[in-house]
Amino acid sequence: HEDNKMKSRKLLTVLTAAVLGLWALPSLAVPTLTISDGLGNSITVEDNDGNDGNANIGTVSFSGTIGDWSITVAAGVDFFLNGQADGTHIDLVSLVSTGLLDPSPQTLTIDFSTEYERGGKFIASIGGTTDGSIVASVWEDDMEILNSGEITPSSGTAFAWSGTETIIADGSYKLTERVEITHESGQAVATSFDYEVKVPEPTSLALLGLGLLGLGFARRRV
Description:
The protein has helices spanning 2-23, 202-221; strands spanning 32-36, 42-46, 59-66, 69-78, 89-98, 106-116, 120-130, 133-140, 143-151, 158-167, 173-183, 189-198. Strand 3 and strand 4 form a beta hairpin. By secondary structure, the protein is an alpha+beta fold. The strands form two sheets. A six-stranded antiparallel sheet has the order 2-1-6-11-8-9, with no helix packed on it. A six-stranded antiparallel sheet has the order 3-4-5-12-7-10, with no helix packed on it. Helix content is 19%, strand content 49%. The N and C termini lie far apart (63 Å). It contains two helices and twelve strands, in the order H-E-E-E-E-E-E-E-E-E-E-E-E-H. The chain is globular and about 45 Å long.
């Protein structure tokens, strides 16, 4: 009888671990920031290496120059890895500027990559200001799965874009958010942005569902 109880407890422990393993979306590899001007000037910064300007786990930061580009800050965050999210959630922020460019125009590409085991339907959104133009994309391994097309400011220098896509993954994959910034030659040309890619957490989806349900009741009452 005691043996049966022990077997039941072990089975329950195994099943619980399996369920938790399916529920979690762990990142597996070291988050990496890659910046390139397309003219042979580039830098790759890994989490907590000698070039990383942020000591926090899951956050990679760089400040400096790449060719003619001055990078006040470029920082990527894996919110799952640093414990601030229950699922896939990465964010890339940057402030860059240029002066006179030779050749002109020039495009700076900023990638933030990390690795996950499972996919899902994610939301990508970017907003900021630019004196040039922006292209935002999402990559699964080496395959582009979402692209904003060229984003130009809609009001003054402000811009915004969002899109959704589903990652179907069998095993681990590299998730990358990429931003391509194009500047023409000029004095004090600048771009800043915040680019977020995330799979909404179950609680967020539940709240969204309740909100939509509430809207449905409100419309019936009108």
